[in-house]
Write a structure and sequence with these properties.
- With 165 residues, the chain is mainly α.
- 72% of the residues lie in helices and 0% in strands.
- The chain has eight helices and no strands.
- The protein is globular, with a radius of gyration of 17 Å.
- The model has no long low-confidence stretch (mean pLDDT 93).
Length: 165
């Protein structure tokens, strides 16, 4: 257990609850795709809900001490919903940090990181912390700015990434 405030039973119940909700919304997504097609606005809304439940499941898996491999199994589904919903103007900076950080944690594939990089390029998103994290994974990723878009609370991380080893 990585989280000492809750017990194993709590996390296992939450994981099962998230699994049921994920199944419900995956089934709904498949039905909507068949009935209305890929471009129907309801598809994005279902992906937003799925992203919430994938995130919750990953939190529970990590907090309860499950192997990183279990998180790695969920990551492609998380990333798919993230890719379908994240936009610079409406997306959460924290979700973007999560997508990259989880990718690093689980040893995501080059293709999975490419999905995130494509979103950032498409949205013309420029942030030092995001660029720094992507550059650590892909030496060809260019750091385009020294500005951290959300200095409160993330400015403190600048000293961490610049600390000499």
């Amino acid at each position: 257990m990585r989280d000492t405030l809750k017990d194993e039973k709590y996390f296992e119940e939450k994981i099962q609850e998230n699994n049921k909700l994920i199944k419900k919304y995956q089934d709904m997504l498949q039905q909507l795709l068949q009935e209305r097609g890929e471009n129907d606005p309801s598809i994005e809304r279902v992906h937003i809900v799925l992203l919430k439940y994938y995130t919750a499941k990953i939190n529970c898996l990590y907090s309860s001490g499950h192997p990183i491999e279990d998180i790695k199994d969920v990551y492609p589904f998380f990333l798919n919903s993230f890719e379908r919903t994240w936009e610079k103007d409406t997306g959460s900076y924290v979700q973007l940090l999560w997508a990259i950080s989880l990718g690093i944690l689980v040893g995501a594939s080059k293709e999975q990181f490419q999905q995130i990089e494509n979103i950032i390029k498409k949205e013309e998103f420029h942030d030092y912390l995001i660029d720094y994290l992507l550059h650590q994974n892909n030496k060809y990723w260019e750091i385009t700015t020294q500005e951290i878009l959300y200095p409160n609370p993330y400015k403190i991380l600048e000293s961490v990434v610049h600390e000499k080893k």
